[in-house]
Design brief:
Elements lengths: L1 H14 L6 H8 L3 H13 L3 E5 L3 E6 L6 H5 L11 E7 L2 H10 L7 E7 L17 E8 L9 H18 L5 E3 L3 E4 L2 E13 L2 E12 L7 H4 L5 H5 L5 H22 L2 H10 L5 E7 L2 E10 L5 E4 L5 E4 L3 E3 L1
Parallel strand pairs: 3-4
Antiparallel strand pairs: 1-2, 4-5, 5-9, 6-7, 7-8, 8-9, 10-11, 10-14, 11-12, 12-13
Helix pairs in contact: 2-3, 6-9, 6-10
The chain binds biotinyl-5-AMP.
Length: 322
């Protein structure tokens, strides 16, 4: 049943908004005209808007706001990123599911995606607001053969992939705030949470959670001042499945480059998108607050802060204020 649905959506995707006759569809799917009609009705129930015109057939006018494995798979151009998709409409946190899948040995590039998280989380057990059908709440599972100390680089790589995808899919110009925030016009539109399954100095899996505010029109009061969405900034709704596809493609390209040539090329890209370079910042760490100028990141992705006395301090983990 789902196989036929995929084929039907594939046919509509190829038709590119043109009509497909009932006969053509039934030939293509190898089923009766009545069965075609039933599948069309099923699509309508899923939220697709289809126009049916006598003699011309059917065409898709509007896709549902929901995302599904099918929506992500159709037109996906990657080799291994997102080739295994675990989708559920509601979950507690995609990170939690990703940890289980990673332990069960799911292939590299597996993604966990949902339409809503009931307890989405940020760093240090902070809450991540993940309302229904508006954002991209996704976890990516990787099994890179790299030392544990290099894994923060993957957070930075992910930020670059997401910035590139947002630039490609919208008119917006996002910036990265070290280490894991993507800002648009000074407000946070994306958060990234990288977690590890590792033993001693061997990485077993890296689980990268990405929260992207896409179609929200407003935020709860406690986030109003600091959060934004692509919709709020661009005035336009975006197709979440399309953005996921573009992120996966950009990510795959950067990740392969990273595995081949190391962090250098990624670092250059990251710096070109960074908002805090050569600016005075305040870094709140667990051991206290530091002030100085952000002069860059080192080859491991660690933030370099130049203090007033000229001394350079390495920042491994902090919240940054500009
Ligand atoms: C982050 O943490 O920015 C990482 C967020 C990662 C979320 C993804 S969604 C898929 C996957 N599954 C999960 O459960 N998590 C990952 P941090 O830098 O600690 O920022 C958290 C802070 O951002 C909160 O304390 C709020 O102030 C703010 N915040 C919460 N929800 C937000 C939202 N939707 N948009 C912007 N800011 C938000």
């Amino acid at each position: 049943e789902t196989g036929i649905r995929t084929k039907l959506l594939e046919a509509f995707s190829k038709a590119n908004g043109e009509f497909l006759s009932g006969q053509k569809i039934s030939d293509y799917l190898g089923c009766s005209r009545t069965a075609v009609w039933k599948h069309i009705e099923e699509l309508r129930k899923e939220g697709y808007e289809l126009e049916a015109v006598r003699r011309l057939g059917y065409r898709i006018i509007k896709k549902p706001d929901k995302i599904s494995s099918n929506e992500i798979k159709l037109g996906l151009e990657t080799e291994f990123m997102g080739r295994t998709i675990h989708f559920e409409p509601v979950v507690t946190s995609t990170q939690k599911i990703a940890h289980q899948l990673a332990n069960d040995g799911t292939p590299e590039g597996t993604i966990v995606v949902t339409d809503e998280q009931t307890s989405g989380r940020g760093r240090m057990a902070r809450e991540w607001h993940s309302p229904k059908e508006t954002g991209i709440w996704m976890s990516i599972i990787l099994h890179p053969n790299i030392p544990v100390s290099n894994t923060p680089q993957l957070t930075l790589l992910t930020a670059v992939a997401i910035v590139q995808a947002i630039e490609e899919e919208t008119s917006l110009t996002p910036h990265i705030k070290w280490p894991n925030d993507i800002l648009i016009n000074g407000k946070k539109a994306v958060g990234i949470l990288t977690e590890l399954i590792a033993e001693a100095d061997r990485v077993h899996s890296v689980i990268i959670g990405t929260g992207i505010n896409v179609n929200q029109e407003k935020f709860p009061e406690h986030l109003e001042e600091i959060a934004t969405s692509l919709k709020i900034e661009s005035g336009k709704k975006s197709d979440r499945a399309k953005i996921i596809q573009t992120i996966l493609l950009r990510f795959e390209t950067l990740y392969l480059l990273y595995l081949k040539e190391g962090f250098k090329p990624i670092k250059l890209l990251w710096e070109s998108y960074s908002i805090s370079m050569n600016k005075p910042i305040t870094a709140r760490t667990l051991n206290g607050t530091l002030q100085g100028e952000a002069i860059g990141i080192d080859d491991n992705g660690v933030l370099l802060l130049k203090k007033a006395d000229g001394e350079i301090e390495k920042i491994y983990s902090a919240d940054i204020e500009l």
